[in-house]
């Protein structure tokens, strides 16, 4: 049986030129020899840092961009040979997407797109009602979109992407810019879609989201596949050493730089948590680094220290940080 999405040695490069008088040309290889497949009914995640090639890959799969070389098949159809046939059987939604009619109600927006997508007039009414129910917007369908939150708009976009009942759905950063409550509602919707039998390929920068949602994940960087597997497989495939979280306040950059150079330390990431700074220090496998990390930090500024099990984010940082 063929996979629902099958990507084989896929490449896409872009030629760009800069300068007015002396033009210089540059080629960016956005996707390089990428191969993976997504099985029917699977929720598959594509992860990678900015510029890794995730959107370029999705754009080729949804027939908005032609591959430079290699083959991509969706539902067994070559995306470069028969884009029309692919388009009629897939849906896609980009995070932060515009394109809804603000002055129209949610239901009128769906009616308009249903016409555009050629949904038969007979089935439009029931289809729209079903979709509004699915995306938790029934009861709000008569309200104009201009009064909707970002999360509601995104759910409406997903309903729009499902009007023609596609078998495969591509979601590019579906929860970007959406508050935690809205993001949770969207994640619940994605789970319902999977339960309804859709095959879903999604990109995200949120590791917790990927860990919660995805059956399998491909991690890509610089257009190439770095790792592929279930969240559990990824966590155990990367030989992660000790992970220490240090909550501090007012820690100078020089101290963070010093920790990075300590023996046994693999990566250090610093972020803001409320009024505190959170340092996440990953050690090399087998190295005991808690003592030396704490010695490098003035204990006047340490709020809390804990060691914990590696998360998908730790595995991701180890994979991408080391590439
Ligand atoms: N139309 C284009 N012209 C030139 N270069 C492009 C074009 N589209 C993408 N690129 C380049 O291709 C590379 C991959 O970009 P892409 O948008 O696929 O990454 P991404 O993984 O989706 O990143 P992000 O997480 O930031 O959305 C980048 O270096 C980008 O600058």
UniProtKB/TrEMBL annotation:
Among InterPro entries, the record links this protein to: AAA+_ATPase, ABC_transporter-like_ATP-bd, ABC_transporter_ATP-binding, P-loop_NTPase
Protein name (database record): ABC transporter ATP-binding protein
Q: A Gene Ontology CC term for this entry?
A: plasma membrane
SUPFAM superfamilies for the chain: P-loop containing nucleoside triphosphate hydrolases
Domain ABC transporter, chain residue ranges per copy: 5-247
The record ties this protein, via PANTHER family, to: ABC TRANSPORTER ATP-BINDING PROTEIN (PTHR42711), ABC TRANSPORTER, ATP-BINDING PROTEIN (PTHR42711:SF18)
Species per Swiss-Prot/TrEMBL record: Kribbella albertanoniae
Keywords of this entry: Antibiotic resistance, ATP-binding, Nucleotide-binding, Transport
């Amino acid at each position: 049986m063929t996979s629902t999405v099958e990507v084989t040695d896929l490449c896409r490069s872009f030629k760009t030129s800069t300068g007015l008088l002396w033009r210089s040309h540059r080629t960016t290889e956005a996707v390089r020899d990428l191969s993976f497949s997504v099985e029917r009914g699977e929720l598959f995640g594509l992860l990678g840092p900015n510029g890794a090639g995730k959107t370029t890959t999705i754009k080729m799969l949804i027939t908005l961009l032609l591959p430079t070389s290699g083959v991509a098949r969706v539902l067994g159809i070559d995306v470069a040979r028969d884009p029309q046939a692919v388009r009629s059987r897939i849906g896609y939604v980009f995070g932060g997407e515009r394109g809804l009619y603000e002055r129209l109600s949610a239901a009128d927006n769906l009616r308009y797109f249903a016409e555009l997508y050629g949904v038969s007039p007979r089935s439009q009414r029931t289809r729209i009602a079903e979709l509004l129910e699915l995306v938790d917007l029934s009861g709000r369908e008569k309200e104009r979109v201009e009064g909707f939150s970002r999360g509601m708009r995104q759910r409406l976009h997903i309903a729009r992407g499902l009007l023609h009942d596609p078998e495969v759905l591509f979601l590019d950063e579906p929860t970007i810019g959406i508050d935690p409550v809205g993001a949770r509602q969207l994640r619940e919707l994605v789970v319902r879609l999977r339960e309804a039998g859709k095959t879903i390929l999604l990109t995200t920068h949120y590791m917790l989201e990927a860990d919660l949602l995805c059956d399998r994940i491909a991690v890509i960087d610089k257009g190439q596949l770095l790792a592929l597997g279930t969240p559990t497989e990824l966590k155990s495939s990367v030989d992660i050493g000790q992970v220490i979280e240090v909550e501090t306040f007012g820690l100078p950059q020089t101290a963070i730089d010093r920790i990075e150079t300590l023996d046994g330390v693999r990566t250090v990431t610093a972020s803001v948590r409320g009024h505190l700074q959170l340092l996440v220090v990953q050690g090399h496998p087998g190295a005991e680094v808690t003592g030396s990390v704490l010695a490098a930090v003035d204990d006047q500024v340490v709020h809390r220290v804990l060691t914990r099990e590696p998360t998908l984010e730790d595995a991701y940082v180890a994979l991408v940080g080391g590439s």
